[in-house]
Amino acid sequence: MKTRITELLDIKHPIIQGGMHYVGFAELAAAVSNAGGLGIITALTQKTPDDLRREIERCKGMTDQPFGVNLTFLPTVSAPDYPGYVDAIVEGGVKIVETAGRNPQAYLPGLKDAGVKIIHKCTSVRHALKAEKIGCDAASVDGFECGGHPGEDDIPNMILLPRAAEELTIPFVASGGMADARSLVASLALGADGINMGTRFIATQEAPVHENVKQAILAANELDTRLVMRPLRNTERVLYNPAVERLMEKEASLGKNITFEDIIDDVAGVYPKVMMDGDVDAGVWSCGMVAGLIHDIPTCKALIDRIMSEATVIIRNRLEGLLK
Ligand SMILES: Cc1cc2nc3c(=O)[nH]c(=O)nc-3n(C[C@H](O)[C@H](O)[C@H](O)COP(=O)(O)O)c2cc1C
């Protein structure tokens, strides 16, 4: 399948693995890229730019295919060493960066001068248009369904994707709620050039996370996520667990007066405990509604091959068949 995204990124299949904190290590990125998609290492999971340098080298040792690095701009007071991470990306010869969080404009010149293509992940048409205007090469349009941060507009992909198609000139992928060939074909029909998956890629053989995390996603259905941190305008879709219940009670009782300090224990330092130690109730962690569509733990290659072959069947048999 050839789309504007496979052409832009020089990949075989229009499937991207979104950056994920404490999931997007070299093992997963390389497995996705070796399977013909675009794997992505998550920069901020690496404590320092030098750690990211080493992770990029590790990934190069596992694949000769293109892979990317996710650079998430966090709403924190003490910002990570973003210029250092950008240097590590450029010096490591990485040619694709997924930016997310805030406007990446300040870092675009350094990246673009080095020939890096930028995919900006955003949750609204206006932010996607801004990304286009400042020179991003593609957008990853993240609907309300998505695991992680869906923004504050609450527009599901059935509306968001065709709206993006109406407005954008640059290629874009559909993100949030993507799991299988049906997701891919539907996204293409709605005007996207491919898909970006997060939660689906956690439940794969190569995702270097504890087995408990994969089993928790398998056990969950589409009703099992919640939105937290909405009062702080930092909404996150997470898998429901006792820690989420406690956090939601705190949010309800403190109301509009809640501050980040009130909830820091519930949300800070959680990912290593969940993803590495397998303590899935240690705190709140991102998960998409798409958990309801995840029923197995395939290799990345088996997953991507299945999506591509079933997409062909849907297009050729089901859709073409409707016209007869
Ligand atoms: C566990 C987890 C951690 C994530 N961490 C990040 C992150 O650090 N930076 C980022 O830009 N997106 C992050 N995301 C969002 C994903 O890259 C992707 O946009 C999202 O998962 C798409 O929705 P889906 O889960 O329905 O596929 C994370 C998602 C999950 C599930």
CATH homolog superfamily of the largest domain: Aldolase class I
Tell me the series of helices and strands, N- to C-terminal.
HEHEHEHEHEHEHEHEHHEEHHHH
State the shape: globular
* Gyration radius over CA: 19 Å
Strand content: 5-15%
Walk me through this protein's architecture.
Helices cover 43% and strands 14% of the residues. The chain is α/β, with parallel strands linked by helices and 324 residues long. It has two domains: 4-209, Aldolase class I (TIM Barrel, Alpha-Beta Barrel); 225-286, no CATH class. Strands 1-8-7-6-5-4-3-2 form an eight-stranded parallel beta sheet. Helix 2 runs parallel beside helix 3 (49-62), helix 3 packs parallel to helix 4 (82-91) and helix 8 packs across helix 14. The chain is globular and about 60 Å long. It binds flavin mononucleotide. Flavin mononucleotide binds at residues 18-21, 23, 42, 70, 72, 100, 121, 142, 145-148, 175-178, 196-200, 285-288, 290.
